[in-house]
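Sequence only, no structure available. Ideas?
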Amino acid sequence: MNFYEHTIIARQDISPTQLKQVEEKYKKIIESNSGNLLKTEKWGLMNLSYLIKKNKKGNYIHFKIEGSGKTISELEKSEKIDKNLLRYLTIKVKKIDLDTNYFEKNSEDKEKKDK
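Reply:
I predicted one. Tokens follow.
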């Protein structure tokens, strides 16, 4: 089994319930294709570097997956036809860091800004 980091960017104008449905849909696809979802991170609504399909922002969801190439190909096949997604990216990694969440607001960062 290989390790993958997979990020999807959903449209900015979908509702929170639709965003949750998108997340659940791809979790089911991963698990139904003999993949193991190790961690899911919701990075939230962030600015895009350039317009994508007339959107300035996107909702980011990041999955850390253990699976095979078949798992990823099925996942990407489904994402190609999903109208709620703007982009997706899969990266194969040797080792997964499950401890660090890079987009989480730390209390230390808030304290620095307050001073």
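Residues 6-97 form a domain with the Alpha-Beta Plaits fold (CATH 3.30.70.60).
Hope that gets you unstuck.
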